[in-house]
Design goal:
Nucleotidyltransferase, domain 5, alpha/beta, 6-stranded mixed sheet, 7 helices, 6 strands
Length: 209
């Protein structure tokens, strides 16, 4: 994959349209998604034909905010995700088959009921995000590829248990980004994950998988 151009973090679908669709229209669009409230997004414009292999023209990297703004209801998260997909109209989607894993400190000294109460909401959100993407893709006849977390980390770093800092360092080395591996409070780790999800998906797609 070519070096990446970063777009500003966005919530507004109209602004997303300005970020993406005012660029030269590609033949096809592929996206990689690291689903979550700060949704990491990688977008590649590419062409492919029988006569030549997949050629990536441009790749953008950033985040789409799927939070709930003041005076909005909870389901607006999923409406916003659908709006993003409707704006971009990808030809293929790759995403992490993410499952919520609570931090270790949450599990120490807590009752089962307390743990379940704390993890229920984030687990439900991730499941709903995946269902939203799957439903949109089915309605629009768009193929999707799903990769497990361990599979993505191993592809990126060679280690299936790589931490966020390792993923960011490898993203900088491979794609020319300049994220701080020791300070990723603004969700750069999500962008790094999205970059590898897209790169992994396109590498398989180009081989006819």
């Amino acid at each position: 994959m070519t070096k990446l151009t970063r777009f500003p973090i966005q919530r507004d679908p109209q602004q997303l349209a300005a970020d993406f669709l005012l660029r030269p229209k590609p033949t096809k669009i592929a996206i990689g998604l690291d689903l979550g409230t700060h949704c990491g997004v990688a977008v590649s414009y590419f062409v492919q034909s029988v006569q030549r292999p997949l050629e990536i023209r441009q790749t953008l990297l950033g985040q789409v905010l799927l939070d709930v703004a003041p005076y909005e209801t909870g389901p607006m998260r999923f409406v916003r995700l659908r709006q993003f997909l409707n704006v971009l109209l990808p030809d293929i989607i790759f995403l992490e088959d993410v499952k919520y894993t609570p931090p270790k400190e949450l599990l120490v000294g807590k009752s089962i009921g307390a743990v379940i109460a704390r993890i229920a909401t984030p687990a439900e959100l991730l499941g709903a995000f995946k269902a939203t993407v799957a439903t949109w893709a089915e309605e629009n006849s768009v193929p999707t590829g799903n990769f497990g977390s361990t599979e993505i980390k191993k592809y990126a770093t060679g280690k299936g248990n790589a931490n966020k800092s390792m993923m960011i360092k490898e993203c900088n080395a491979r794609f020319g980004t300049s994220y701080d591996p020791d300070n990723y409070k603004d969700g750069e780790d999500n962008e790094a994950d999205a970059a590898f999800i897209l790169d992994m998906g396109l590498s398989q797609y180009s081989k006819g998988v």
